[in-house]
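[agent] plan:
  1. take the single chain provided in the ticket
  2. run structure prediction with default settings
  3. attach structure tokens to the ticket
  4. add a short note for the reviewer (M.T.)
[agent] executing step 1
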Amino acid sequence: MPIVDGLTSTKMIRSFEKTHRDVYSPRAALNGRIPIIAVSASLIERKRQEYVDAGFDAWILKPISFPRLNELMAAIVDSNIRKSCLYNPGEWEKGGWFHMGQASSNDVSTIPSGEPPQSNLSKGAEEAARSEDPTAGDDSGRIPDEQERLLHAQAEERGSEPKNNPSQSEQPEGS
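[agent] step 2 finished; step 3 output follows
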């Protein structure tokens, strides 16, 4: 994330929830708060309590197992699935849920850590953060390579042609 990291943004969401109780969708209300799933390649099991304290409800590691992600998403509304996805020591790599639900935003610490939200920003990310332009830093109209690959894979599964990305199809070959 270019400006704030996942812990900081989660604390910001939980802080907002403390003063805005009427923002929950019916699905979020089942959880007691807006469900937040941490997605990262660098989540560490020994820091599990830090993630819980910040307000994360669940986690999944990269590279993402999409069947497991679907299961975690279904657990938002199905307590039986959530129970089967609860944290078990030694199974961190699978991802899962930290609790059965009905956790309150009041139960988490939303106090800023005092640490800079993101370190080692690229020059482009720093410029985008200072810009007033909401699209600063975006490659307007360009689909990232990994997303392009996934779109092609989905189209092949359906037996159809993927939609062309105009910004890429207009480029001459070899550029």
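[agent] step 4 note for reviewer: Helices lie at 6-19, 26-31, 48-54, 66-74, 79-84, 123-130, 145-158, 166-169.
[agent] ticket updated
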